[in-house]
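seq as requested:
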Amino acid sequence: MSRLSARDRLGRMLELVPWVMSQGAAEIGEISQRFDYPQDELREDLTKVLFVVGLYPFTPDQLINVIGLDTEECLTDADEDQVAITNADYFSRPLRLTSAQALSLIGAAKALLMESDTDGPLSRGLKKLAAGLDISPNEDLEINLGDAPPEWLQPLRLAIQQHKKTQITYYSFGRGQITERIIQPQQIFSERGNLYVSAYCETAEGIRVFLIDRIRAVQVLDERFAPLTQTNPPSAFQPRLEDPRAVIHLAPQASWVLEKYPIEHRETLPNNKIAITMRISETSRLERLLLQLGAQAELHSVEPPLQIQIAQSAATRVLSRYL
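struct tokens:
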């Protein structure tokens, strides 16, 4: 029997867990035969994979228990070895979703299908969920991952697929400068209604994220690069260790900042104000935010220290241009 792919192993594991639970216990040989699962791979997945599967916050009491196989027994080839699976009751009953949860899944699935095969299992699952809500995903639901010039998206996607270096002309909002950069584009993603490209920037010598809407020109080069292995999902804001943390007290009517800006911590104060902690990559960004908020925000502290009268200083510079 040939070795199974990771996708096949996952599918078989999702099928065998509820079956073993319904039996109380089952022999390894019977499980292997019933689910066409090679015994060595079955034992490996039961003892090295399944036991770390569970529910948030993934503490021991929330992880699946596999009983009957330990490291010593796993080295044997006995068909009669018994195995039982507990603490996985959510596999033994149909998943029940609220209408809001189902609609959220449909939206996420439709967003993924924009860039993938529309005839696979995800598409079939989307149709079943939509039928349960009596809606048509194509007619009743519109997904907008963000707007970006199509003349930039097409060459960037090509560069990602072919692993080709790309020269871009980019406007840096924080510095107010236009620069020429050579990048190694890794991934295009959407966040907060905008489209970004995550890339290794040869100028900065590190991973950077570029808002595609601020790109002024794109040229795909002939030189290829080796794609990087990214363990964390990309994010539009990637703070550096040396970036200062600012604590800002917001009036209740300025709570929209929580949705628009990356916040590390929030706390509701006795006077109904909201204390937020956020990383500051560029002082100019903080100046713009404080000027926009006006009396609705108070800069409480910055660590490492910056000029505490940032808003007043920025306002003075702006007013001086009109005098």
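The longest strand covers residues 177-191.
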